[in-house]
Amino acid sequence: MKTIDDFEVAGLRVLVRADLNVPLDGGRVADDGRIRASLPTLIALTTRGARVIVCAHLGRPGGKPDPRYSLAPVAARLGELLGARVELAADPAAARAAVATDGLVMLENLRFNAAETSKDDVQRGLFADQLAELADLYVADGFGAVHRKHASVYDVALRLPHAAGYLVQAEVAALSRLTADIRRPYVVVLGGAKVADKFDAIGSLITAADRILIGGAMAFPFLAARGGKVGTSLLEAGQVDAAGGYLDQAAPGQIELPSDVIAAAQRTAPGQVVAADAIPADQMGLDIGPESAARFAASIAEARTIFWNGPMGVFELAPYAGGTQAVAQAIIGSDAFTVVGGGDTGAAIRALGFADDAFGYLSTGGGASLEFIEGKTLPGLAALEDR
Ligand code: ADP
Ligand code: MG
To answer: pLDDT (tens digit, 9 = 90+) per residue, 52-77?
Structure first.
């Protein structure tokens, strides 16, 4: 895998695929972690005299322009961080014109074009052709998207000389420490709400990890599989059987579930602590309870390697932030090598007032980091292999 340091970029037009999929709040960037993580590559390229077109996606606009998913707030924030105005080009043609005069241009949300995420190779390829025409070099720096076989992630890399950016390089180096020569005990902490996306990873994590602590909405299929009552908690049909299979596959005690949760009828209501397997029928679990948080912290304290993905509760609301806070605190207190992954997990850490560098490595990828440590082939990395 070549990096940007292997290329003489002065005078070249460089297309950088970044991961700028940040949470927004009323048209403002609520957490700029992924924008900051993209800076080293963008600054290195522009400082060395490259003309840069940075492209990225935001949310799931469904293949057509939608102002709610415009990258405009992201371009504005990037401009603030760089101390220069960042022009937002509506489409590749506009980007081509703008980059002729500007040092750095941002292309509007790639997912405004249905071809970006199309399953059809030809359709994706046509869009990749348009992107490839913009540049002399392609730089992959959007680690959070490298597990997607999308036009800007995969197909365009096949059409241009290509290099990994500093973020992708750093991510690969850190996550590789979770795929071989792992220092044990290795403890994995899983949570969050994108349960379907992450569920498949559990099988291989059972093989790799000594212990898996499961909180957040991820816990409910497992609690239900054990016959627990989960009330109106977030739960998708089909996942209960899969969770039961994982519980059978795991060694006794290897998967640790919450014993108590904080439940309420609505998110806006103050919660009460209840047994995790006896959530009242009209209530949902919104955070792990204090007893579970203490048990999870004790397991974390014994670890020498930790991977954490997914908040333990609805941390955005103060009454349901305690579990995530406790896990973060325990991880900071341990001297294990730690990788924290997930867009919302990173945002949670910062929202709760922890510094990024209090953790061993803060990955910008959620699904991508999980798939990497599962040992899967990630299209955006495979495309960077030397041909
Ligand atoms: P990440 O981006 O770190 O991979 P996810 O996207 O999977 O994490 O999940 C983050 C979201 O999970 C947060 O917005 C949080 O509010 C939500 N969440 C955590 N626990 C629960 C729960 N018990 N019920 C509903 N949502 C939850
Ligand atoms: Mg998320």
So the answer is: 999 999 999 999 999 999 999 999 99
